[in-house]
Design a protein that fits this description.
CATH class of the domain at 50-92 and 131-248: Mainly Beta
Distance between the termini: 18 Å
Largest sheet: 5 strands, mixed
Helix content: 10-25%
Strand order of the largest sheet: 3-12-13-14-15
Number of strands: 15
CATH architecture of the domain at 50-92 and 131-248: Beta Barrel
CATH topology of the domain at 50-92 and 131-248: OB fold (Dihydrolipoamide Acetyltransferase, E2P)
Radius of gyration: 20 Å
Shape: globular
Strand content: 15-25%
Structural class: alpha+beta
Length: 356
C-alpha cells in the first residue's frame, strides 16, 4: 500500500483520511525534525530522546529522559516516550472518533493497529517494529503459546554488559504491586511477565505522573496506558528503564484532565465526529486544541483555556490553520458545542479488521 505523507490536509475534513493541521497539536513541533517522512519510499525516520541500549549515553536531566521519561520536555529534535506513544496512537487512527465506533474498540483492535502503525517506521536505521512489544490479547487456554512467543520476541535482548539492548513496551496498566525487591508494574494481557521497578524509579513515577494516576483512580472505565523501555535479565525477568503514562477513556481516547474528559464525554454523548489532539513533546503550558470537530461546516478547533486572555492566542492559531475556533474558559460554564452539519461521511475501504 502506497503511503503519501503530508497529504492529510488535502482531504476534505469529512473524509476518513483527513488529518487536522499539525499546528493544532504537539505534532507541529516535531514533524520535520524528530519525525521525517520520505515521500519516495513511504518510510518514516524518528529520532528518540531516550536510550535504547546500555551503551548509549543517557539524555541530560530535563531533556526527556532521566529515570522516568519527562514528557514536559520541549526538544523538537527528539521524541520523548510519551511522544512516541502519541505518534503511534495517531498513526493507528486511535485519536479519531465517529459514532459508529462506539463499543467496538477493545485490546485486540487497539493492539493490532498499534503494531501496524509501527510498520514503516525506523530509528537509527533499524525498524521500530523490532524494538516494540505490544502484548497480544491474553487467552488462558493458549497461555503457553503466548508465553513462548513473548520469550522469542524478548530473546535477542538477553545480553549482558554494555551492549545490552532495550525494547519498548506499550500496554495497559493493571496494578502496581510490591515485590520482594522494589515493586512491579502488572500489565493487562501480560499477567506472567510484570515490569520490575525499583523504589527510586517508582518514587519518580508517582511524582511525575501523579495527575495520570489520580485520573486512573477516578475513571473505572478508563485505560491507563504505559509506554516503557525495559531490559531483560539472564533469567528472563523484565526491568523497566524509563516509563511514561497516558490516560485514556473507555473508548481509548487520550485525555489530560477532568475538564478535558468532560469535553470529550460531551462530544461523545452528542454523537459527534472529531479528532483528539495529542501533545507529543509540547509543554503543558503551551496552548493547543483539545478536539478538532470534523462534522461542522468548517473544521472547528476546540480549546480549553485558563483565562480570557488566552482567547486571542487560540483565535490566532485557528486563523493560521484555516479552522474555526470554539473556546471554553475553565471556571465558566461550558458553551454549547459548535453545531454539526448533516452529511454523509465517505466510507474508506480497507481489508483491515473492523471496529477501528
Amino acid at each position: 500500500i502506497k503511503r503519501m505523507p503530508d497529504t492529510g490536509l488535502a482531504h476534505t475534513h469529512r473524509c476518513a483520511s483527513y488529518l487536522p493541521p499539525e499546528e493544532l497539536s504537539g505534532l507541529g513541533q516535531v514533524l520535520g525534525s524528530a519525525i521525517t517522512e520520505e515521500a519516495d519510499s513511504g518510510l518514516t525516520a524518528i529520532k528518540l530522546g531516550f536510550r535504547m541500549s546500555k551503551a548509549e549515553r543517557a539524555a541530560p536531566a530535563g531533556a526527556g529522559s532521566g529515570a522516568v521519561a519527562d514528557s514536559v520536555a520541549a526538544d523538537p529534535n527528539r521524541l520523548t516516550l510519551r511522544a512516541v506513544l502519541h505518534y503511534l496512537w495517531q498513526e493507528a487512527d486511535l485519536a479519531t472518533w465517529s459514532p459508529g465506533m462506539a463499543g467496538k474498540r477493545n485490546w485486540r483492535i487497539v493492539s493490532w493497529y498499534l503494531r501496524q502503525a509501527a510498520r514503516g517506521k525506523f530509528t537509527k536505521g533499524k525498524p521500530l517494529a523490532t524494538k516494540l512489544y505490544v502484548p497480544e490479547p491474553f487467552n488462558l487456554e493458549k497461555k503457553t503459546e503466548i508465553a513462548a512467543r513473548r520469550l522469542s520476541a524478548w530473546a535477542p535482548m538477553q545480553q549482558h554488559g554494555s551492549s545490552q539492548q532495550f525494547m519498548m513496551l506499550i500496554g495497559e496498566l493493571k496494578a502496581i504491586d510490591p515485590a520482594r525487591f522494589g515493586h512491579k508494574l502488572v500489565i493487562k494481557h501480560l499477567p506472567d511477565a510484570p515490569l520490575m521497578v525499583d523504589d527510586v524509579l517508582l518514587k519518580r513515577l508517582n511524582k511525575r505522573f501523579g495527575d495520570e494516576l489520580e485520573l486512573w483512580q477516578s475513571d473505572d472505565e478508563g485505560h491507563l496506558m504505559v509506554i516503557a523501555t525495559f531490559s531483560v535479565g539472564r533469567a528472563g525477568l523484565a526491568t523497566a528503564e524509563e516509563i511514561s503514562l497516558v490516560m485514556t477513556d473507555r473508548n481509548w481516547l487520550p485525555y489530560e484532565s477532568l475538564a478535558d474528559k468532560l469535553l470529550l464525554d460531551t462530544a461523545l454523548d452528542a454523537h459527534r465526529r472529531f479528532t483528539k489532539s495529542l501533545r507529543y513533546n509540547l509543554a503543558p503550558d503551551k496552548p493547543m486544541a483539545s478536539l478538532v470537530f470534523t462534522d461542522t461546516e468548517t473544521p472547528t478547533a476546540a480549546f480549553l483555556l485558563g483565562s480570557d486572555e488566552d482567547r486571542e492566542t487560540a483565535a490566532q492559531i485557528a486563523a493560521d490553520t484555516g479552522t474555526e475556533v470554539w473556546t471554553w474558559v475553565i471556571g465558566e460554564d461550558m458553551p454549547a458545542l459548535p453545531p454539526a452539519v448533516d452529511h454523509r461521511r465517505p466510507q474508506a475501504q480497507s481489508g483491515q479488521p473492523t471496529g477501528h
